[in-house]
């Protein structure tokens, strides 16, 4: 699930230890090393000069490297295609001034880029603090294990980086970018929720009062109806029954077939994830309970209780979903089937149409659930013909989803 950057010791030296000016100096030094065959060749002196400068920079930098206290202020989530913005507060806890202070996140995984890694604070006097901004571009959805933040100095000559401490960073969820859906026509009905109803939408819900009955030992005291007790001359309690509510299951198909059209299949999968996020966003405004099911390398099952907070968790879950290269319905079907009794409506976001998906849809129909199937696929034919009817079974183009053209469902 976590995406990490991978680097070798050589790339660490060339990518982090040496600045661009330092890499240029090393390159020129190695090119001029050819003149070392004879002290009579003038380029030999270039090699000696650069070697001496790099040695001097290493010695002075190690002696003068600063002692810095670091506080990082950076969100733990972002949206694909946007920038994460934060700051680092650096405090000089050493006895000498800290010169040319910078911060870097070396080894960021693919899909992330520290765009202002070259920002610098010229000097931080002893005991004082300064702040550097952090801007990280995130181009792809995912859950990323962040490398440690490395505060450092490039003094002297801005050729090498010298630092003492590193700061561990929390993982970052890059959530899918999505376009809101303006209206959804969902066939929905209320069903009894065995064992009690969950918190519904934004206004909440409670058990429904149906009457009184005689008190029996062991019942909760807070249910005693004192007015009825005074009227009847014996203790009675209020009786409640579970309410009915609309519960919607949102099923994300993650099975991406391994074919020669890998980029096209991946594009369809990302469009399906975006569409799922759009559907979850649209369902926030409805008085319903939302269950999200996604089966990939892991089975994800999530049930909302309150609207805004849990929608954030839905987006975090969708950030982590990865495509599966074998049919996910072996894991998905049992988890969904157990919930069919209390599910009112099922929304299925499919990537293909075959016999296993058709059987899954039939089992949902037989359980008495309202159903809508959204097939995210271009004009490429499905495994078996898709019986599209424009409402219960509907095909959507991945390019239209990416462009935000799907506004009504």
Task: Write a structural description.
By secondary structure, the chain is an alpha/beta fold. The chain folds into 3 domains: 2-175, Sandwich (Immunoglobulin-like); 213-238, no CATH class; 245-402, Rossmann fold, CATH 3.40.50.410. It is built from 9 helices and 20 strands. It has helices at residues 9-17, 20-32, 43-64, 226-232, 262-283, 307-320, 329-337, 355-366, 398-402, and strands spanning 2-3, 68-73, 77-79, 83-92, 98-104, 112-114, 121-124, 129-138, 142-144, 150-153, 172-175, 191-192, 208-214, 236-241, 244-253, 288-295, 299-303, 345-350, 370-376, 393-396. Strands 12, 15, 16, 17, 18, 19 and 20 form a 7-stranded mixed beta sheet that branches. A 4-stranded mixed beta sheet has the order 1-9-11-3. A 4-stranded antiparallel beta sheet has the order 2-4-8-6, with no helix packed on it. The longest helix is centred in the N-terminal third of the chain and has 22 residues, at 43-64. The chain starts with a strand and ends in a 7-residue tail after the last helix.
The shape is: elongated
Question: Which band does the percent of strand residues land in?
Answer: 25-35%
The biggest sheet amounts to: 7 strands, mixed
CATH superfamily of the largest domain: Immunoglobulins
* Helical content (DSSP H or I, runs of 4+): 25-40%
Low-confidence stretches: 195-205
Q: Would you state the CATH class of the largest domain? A: Mainly Beta
Total count of strands: 20
**Number of self-contained structural domains:** 3
- Rounded radius of gyration (Å): 31 Å
CATH fold assignment of the largest domain? Immunoglobulin-like
Q: Specify the number of helices.
A: 9
- Mean residue pLDDT: 81
Q: Tell me the structural class.
A: alpha/beta
CATH architecture of the largest domain: Sandwich
What separation lies between the terminal Cα atoms?
Answer: 31 Å
Instruction: List the secondary-structure elements in sequence, H or E.
Output: EHHHEEEEEEEEEEEEHEEHEEHHEHEEH
């Amino acid at each position: 699930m976590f995406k990490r950057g991978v680097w070798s010791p050589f790339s660490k030296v060339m990518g982090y230890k040496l600045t661009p000016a330092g890499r240029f100096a090393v390159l020129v030094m190695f090119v001029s090393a050819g003149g070392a065959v004879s002290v009579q060749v003038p380029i030999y002196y270039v090699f000696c000069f650069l070697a001496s400068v790099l040695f001097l920079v290493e010695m002075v930098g190690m002696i003068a490297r600063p002692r810095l206290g670091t506080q990082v202020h950076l969100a733990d989530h972002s949206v694909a295609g946007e920038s994460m913005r934060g700051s680092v507060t650096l405090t000089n806890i050493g006895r000498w001034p800290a010169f040319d202070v910078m911060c870097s996140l070396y080894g960021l995984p693919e899909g992330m880029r520290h765009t202002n890694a070259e920002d610098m604070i010229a000097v931080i006097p002893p005991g004082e603090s300064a702040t550097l901004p952090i801007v990280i571009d995130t181009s792809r959805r995912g859950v990323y294990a962040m490398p440690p933040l490395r505060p450092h100095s490039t003094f002297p000559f801005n050729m090498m980086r010298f630092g003492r401490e590193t700061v561990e960073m929390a993982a970052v969820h890059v959530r899918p970018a999505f376009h809101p859906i303006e209206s959804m026509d969902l066939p929905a009905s209320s069903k009894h929720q065995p064992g009690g109803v969950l918190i519904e939408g934004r206004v909440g819900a409670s058990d429904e009062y149906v009457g009184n009955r005689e008190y029996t030992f062991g019942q909760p005291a807070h249910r005693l109806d004192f007015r009825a007790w005074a009227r009847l001359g014996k203790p009675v309690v209020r009786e409640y029954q579970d309410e009915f509510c609309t519960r919607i299951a949102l099923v994300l198909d993650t099975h991406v077939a391994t074919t020669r059209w890998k980029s096209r299949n991946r594009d369809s999968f990302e469009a399906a994830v975006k569409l799922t996020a759009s559907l979850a966003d649209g369902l926030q405004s409805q008085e319903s309970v939302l269950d999200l099911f996604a089966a990939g390398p892991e089975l994800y099952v999530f049930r909302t209780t309150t609207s805004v907070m849990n929608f954030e968790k839905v987006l975090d879950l969708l950030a982590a979903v990865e495509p599966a290269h074998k049919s996910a319905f072996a894991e998905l079907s049992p988890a969904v089937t157990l919930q069919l009794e209390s599910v009112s409506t099922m929304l299925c976001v499919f990537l293909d149409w075959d016999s296993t998906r058709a059987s899954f849809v039939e089992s949902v129909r037989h359980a008495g659930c309202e159903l809508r199937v959204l097939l995210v696929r271009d004009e490429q034919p499905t495994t078996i013909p898709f019986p599209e009817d424009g409402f219960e079974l509907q095909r959507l183009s991945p390019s239209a989803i990416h462009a935000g053209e799907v506004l009504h469902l």
